[in-house]
Specification:
Blueprint: H1 47-58, E1 64-69, E2 72-77, E3 86-94, H2 99-107, H3 109-115, E4 119-129, E5 132-139, E6 148-159, E7 162-171, E8 182-183, E9 185-196, E10 201-211, H4 218-248, E11 274-275, H5 287-298
Parallel strand pairs: 6-8
Antiparallel strand pairs: 1-2, 2-3, 3-10, 4-5, 5-6, 6-7, 7-9, 7-11, 9-10
């Protein structure tokens, strides 16, 4: 899964002039605010959380390389006994894409609808702070698996010349799981974008710890790491190369991830959210369908 980073900001006029590279003002929501209905705690990541995520993205200890070709490396960790959490990490060197352009592409929801052929539907639900929001994303899965969707709390932070975008799953009462899709769970997913010399180049690291739900056989997981993940990274790189020209023709000054006063998203309180636990969702058994498809592909 390549999740859709969504744009957001604070109320119109607040923090006006916040731009790329400048430290964003922290939101006013209290971290750890309790959800009165569920008792679950939803928090907005602080600096330590961003630093920890970046360190884990860059660390290779405990990871196995499953793919290393064409400037793209895919790392995986084995499934723990009795658990269905899939851990994958992709790293791509982009020689003709700046970190700033990569950051814009990953934020721009309108552009994602153009280049992301896997997206079914994506939209913002509301903003929490100047650098945190909540949104919905659904995507196509390879046949015969059912399509997935997810609701995430997403946050981002420029760190010097680097950028971090990360998310985790939450529940929102107005957006329950849908009958025609399997509600996946993002334990922790996101991107680290690192500037590289020369100036017009960067390294993108994508890391996902996801419970896709459903009883997926091993071959599906292997296909994801060997084929689907590298292809998704290549799509992002290709989208970056075309972004500047596209943006010049589509509201070029509109970048609310850089200029918070541009946002029109409604504010939502943390009290409306609760942690999305995988065990609270129906576990769809797709193993028999997938095994049938594997036999047909091998014939």
């Amino acid at each position: 899964m390549i999740p859709s980073p969504r744009n957001t900001a604070t109320e119109r006029g607040e923090n006006k002039g916040t731009g790329r590279g400048r430290r964003m003002k922290r939101g006013t929501q209290k971290e750890g605010e309790k959800n009165a209905m569920s008792g679950q705690t939803v928090t907005i990541p602080d600096d330590r959380a961003f630093a920890s995520f970046k360190a884990e993205c860059l660390c290779e200890e405990g990871w196995s390389i499953n793919h290393n070709k064409g400037g793209i490396t895919v790392f995986t960790q084995g499934l723990e006994e009795g658990k269905s959490i899939h851990k994958i990490k992709c790293r791509m060197v982009c020689k003709d894409v700046s970190a700033e352009t990569m950051y814009d592409v990953l934020h721009d929801i309108e552009y994602r609808r153009k280049w992301d052929t896997n997206v079914i539907e994506t939209f913002d639900i509301g903003k929490l702070t100047v650098n945190a929001d909540v949104g919905y994303y659904s995507w196509k899965c390879p046949s015969p698996l059912r399509n997935r969707d997810v609701i995430t709390l997403r946050s981002w932070l420029p760190m010097g010349k680097d950028y971090i975008i990360m998310n985790y799953s939450v529940k929102h009462p107005k957006y329950p799981s849908k009958k025609d899709k399997v509600r996946a769970v993002s334990i922790q997913t996101g991107y680290v974008i690192q500037s590289q010399g020369p100036a017009n180049s960067c390294t993108l690291t994508y890391m996902a710890q996801v419970d896709p739900r459903g009883s997926l056989p091993k071959w599906v997981v292997n296909k994801s790491s060997h084929f689907l993940a590298p292809r998704a990274m290549k799509k992002i790189n290709k989208a970056c190369l075309k972004y500047t020209e596209w943006k010049q023709r589509h509201n070029p000054g509109f970048k609310p991830w850089l200029y918070p006063e541009q946002t029109t998203l409604p504010s939502i309180p943390l009290s409306e959210l609760s942690i999305q636990r995988a065990e609270s969702l129906e576990n769809i058994d797709e193993s028999s369908l997938a095994e049938t498809q594997e036999r047909e592909d091998s014939d």
